[in-house]
Specification:
By secondary structure, the protein is mainly beta. It is built from two helices and 28 strands. The longest helix has 10 residues.
């Protein structure tokens, strides 16, 4: 038998890192539903620098085949790199790493569980929060993503409140923080860090006139409804940090400021909820990833809505595997359904026998966390 011969591989290294929508081509493949993203990220790529975030998209190709011949589709795949996940399903459990939280209710505040966007969630009333103890896995120096559903319940107490934060007392290092500000004309969603070795406002270019480094999307969330919010923070040069803000599935702001994450590290607990304010709010599916999510992934999570970003059946077996699910279709028929390991690359070979001179193959994202690298066909 002749050894396999590679046919029409997808060379992600040759592609521009951007989002690809319906009708656009990725090598010899075409996007046929929703959208996908090619990401440049050498820290997480299997080989080289680029890989594909399949999200809830579909990529398809038509192969020239010969009836009766056996072909193989080779895939390298993995999950999204979710490292912490506090769902609020009537507990304070971190479903991934087990860094469980504890409620703190100073100044008469309170926390209860209530119906939220995906099942149950945290209802914070007054000054109250979920405290998560220090862990090295909550200290980030390269790229990471904060992601959550939240609902402002309309108490509207100036100057605002924080959703999630890893910070020491002012003006000490801040590794990350998301806040909502409504104070004397300064308003909107802020994504924040603080490197105390760098210049402060206005030299820092921060959107807020204080010691923090802030990228602020100048829109206040409407109260009484759940919104999806994600923020990616990435060290793009030794002295530069990029922040991208995603609101209800759309990239709404990108900003670069001076700083180095190694100078932002601290050993404070992470707070989720109204630790530094008195707003009544709900939070659900609070998540931290050890990589920057793409536009396609955040959009797919938002579009999943109340269904959540996971396979509910697989979640009961393995929460980490439930995040990345896809299927391969050969001539429109399901050939295989597979789940991606949350942080490790895997490989899979799917074989099929051609029945005609042309065979269609599609890879369909069923849950938003699937990443692909080195997709190829052999005969």
């Amino acid at each position: 038998m002749l050894p396999p011969v590679m046919i029409a591989p997808i060379n992600f290294e040759a592609l521009t890192a951007t989002d690809y929508t319906i009708g656009q081509t990725i090598g010899t493949w075409r996007v046929t539903s929703n959208q996908v993203s090619v990401i440049t990220d050498p820290f997480n790529a299997m080989n080289g620098n680029n890989y594909l975030a399949l999200a809830n998209g579909t990529i398809s190709t038509n192969l020239r085949t010969f009836p009766g011949r056996t072909y193989a589709l080779k895939l390298a795949y993995r999950g999204p790199g979710l490292v912490h996940w506090w769902r609020g399903e009537s507990n304070t459990v971190d479903a991934i790493e087990g860094i469980n939280g504890h409620f703190s209710e100073p100044d008469g505040g309170s926390v209860v569980y209530s119906d939220a966007e995906v099942g149950k969630g945290f209802l914070f009333m007054g000054r109250a929060y979920l405290g998560v103890p220090y862990s090295p896995t909550l200290q980030f120096t390269n790229s990471f993503t904060l992601e959550t559903w939240f609902e402002d319940l309309g108490s509207a107490i100036p100057p605002g409140y924080e959703l999630i934060s890893d910070r020491d007392h002012d003006p000490e290092p801040v590794n990350f923080c998301i806040n909502i500000v409504n104070n004397n004309g300064d308003e909107g969603i802020g994504i924040t860090y603080h490197d105390p070795t760098d210049p402060s406002y206005p030299e820092s270019g921060s959107d807020d006139p204080n010691f923090l480094d802030v990228s602020r999307y100048a829109t206040l969330p409407t109260s009484g409804v759940f919104h999806h919010l994600a923020a990616t923070l990435q060290q793009i040069a030794p002295d530069k940090i990029q922040i991208r803000t995603f609101y209800d599935g759309e990239l709404v702001r990108t900003k670069v400021m001076p700083g180095n994450f190694t100078n932002t590290l601290n050993e404070e607990e992470v707070t989720i909820g109204s630790a530094y304010g008195g707003e009544d709010l709900m939070m659900d599916e609070v998540s931290i990833y050890n990589r920057g999510l793409s536009v396609s992934e955040t959009k797919a999570i938002y579009q999943a809505g109340t269904n959540g970003k996971f396979d509910s059946v697989e979640y009961n077996v393995s929460p980490s595997l439930s995040l990345a699910k896809a299927q391969v279709l050969v001539n429109g028929r399901t050939d295989m359904v597979f789940y991606g390991s949350n942080t490790n690359w895997q490989s899979q070979t799917i074989t099929f026998t051609a029945t005609g001179f042309s065979t269609s193959i599609a890879i369909v994202g069923l849950e938003p966390g699937m990443l692909l690298d080195a997709v190829s066909n052999t005969k």
